[in-house]
């Protein structure tokens, strides 16, 4: 979530700036292709209110739930410096509308990484019945600004929101961390109601991401993979439970290698979807 190379982005949560891809392939279930050989069982009365079915025929645990996914930055931000450098109100201060994000040394952009992970997570969540709202889908010339990213989740009445980023910290640092909102009351910001639920979401995401991807906790920021901040507009202005995740440090060679691997990004998306499912059904 880095801003300009070598510095923290105006909306950034870390060295890469959190304020700152291709969609996942659908896995086939071999068992679903086999027809049953057993004789049919006697019919039983259908339930009065059957649960919605998932692709595998089971219930959809997230039916009726809305999730906001916020892919950090925008692939085209660099071509719109005037627009993204404009300052916006984040409640307790003013910050740049957005930043360009960071990239690996090989040139893989954070904005492409975040959009790919979000596309993959969206598919999993939709398969579980969730209504998934994105702040941007690679369909805007730049942005949106950090205040609009928060507003999109608020107006959608999201039950939970996650902003996906990658950091641009010094190359010696490795690992991921989850950023949770501090209590901020000022101007348009009042996170009082979301601090506790966001903390619960953050811990679930931290645990699921470590288990699902094998990525270690950050060695350079936060404690045990968790950080709390009051200077991010995307959190300060949110009225719904929300966290940021820095999935790794793109400037670290080991992290960059993992994050450039589509199979690892699928595991990252799975962990993200599993954490949201645990939060919304727990």
Radius of gyration (CA) equals 19 Å
The main pleated sheet reads as: 6 strands, mixed
Q: Estimate the mean pLDDT confidence.
A: 86
Query: How much helix is in the residues?
Result: 25-40%
Distance from N terminus to C terminus (CA atoms, Å) equals: 30 Å
Helical region count?
7
Low-pLDDT runs of 5+ residues are: 3-16, 20-53
Order of helices and strands: EHEEHEHEEEEHEHEHH
The global form is globular
Percentage of residues in DSSP E strands: 15-25%
- Helix-strand makeup class: alpha/beta
- The largest beta-sheet arranges its strands as 4-1-5-10-6-9
Number of beta-strand segments: 10
Keywords:
alpha/beta; two-stranded antiparallel ribbon; disordered N terminus; 282 residues; 10 strands; 6-stranded mixed beta sheet; 7 helices
Describe, in short, the structure shown:
The chain has 282 residues and is α/β, with parallel strands linked by helices.
Structural overview:
- With 282 residues, the chain is of the alpha/beta class.
- It has 7 helices and 10 strands.
- The strands form 3 sheets. Strands 4-1-5-10-6-9 form a 6-stranded mixed β-sheet, sandwiched between helices.
- The longest helix has 20 residues.
């Amino acid at each position: 979530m880095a801003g300009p190379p070598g510095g923290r982005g105006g909306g950034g949560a870390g060295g890469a700036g959190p304020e700152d891809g291709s969609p996942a392939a659908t896995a086939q279930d071999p068992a679903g292709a086999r027809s049953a050989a057993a004789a049919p069982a006697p019919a039983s009365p259908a339930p009065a209110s059957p649960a919605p079915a998932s692709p595998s025929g089971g219930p959809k645990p997230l039916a009726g739930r809305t999730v906001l996914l916020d892919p950090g930055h925008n692939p085209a931000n660099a071509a719109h410096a005037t627009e993204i450098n404009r300052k916006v109100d984040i409640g307790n201060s003013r910050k740049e509308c957005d930043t360009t994000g960071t990239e690996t040394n090989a040139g893989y952009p954070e904005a492409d990484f975040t959009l790919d992970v979000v596309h993959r997570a969206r598919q999993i969540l939709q398969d579980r019945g969730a209504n998934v709202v994105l702040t941007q889908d690679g369909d805007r010339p730049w942005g949106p600004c950090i205040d609009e990213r928060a507003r999109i989740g608020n107006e959608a009445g999201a039950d939970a929101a996650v902003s996906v980023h990658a950091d641009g910290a010094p190359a010696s640092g490795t690992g991921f961390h989850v950023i949770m909102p501090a209590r901020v009351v000022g101007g348009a910001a009042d996170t009082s109601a979301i601090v506790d639920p966001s903390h619960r979401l953050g811990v679930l995401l931290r645990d699921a991401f470590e288990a699902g991807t094998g990525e270690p906790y950050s060695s350079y920021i936060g404690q045990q993979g968790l950080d709390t901040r009051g200077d991010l507009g995307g959190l300060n202005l949110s009225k719904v439970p929300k966290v940021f995740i820095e999935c790794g440090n793109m400037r670290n060679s080991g992290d960059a290698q993992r994050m450039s691997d589509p199979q690892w990004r699928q595991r990252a998306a799975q962990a993200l979807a599993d954490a949201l499912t645990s939060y919304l059904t727990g």
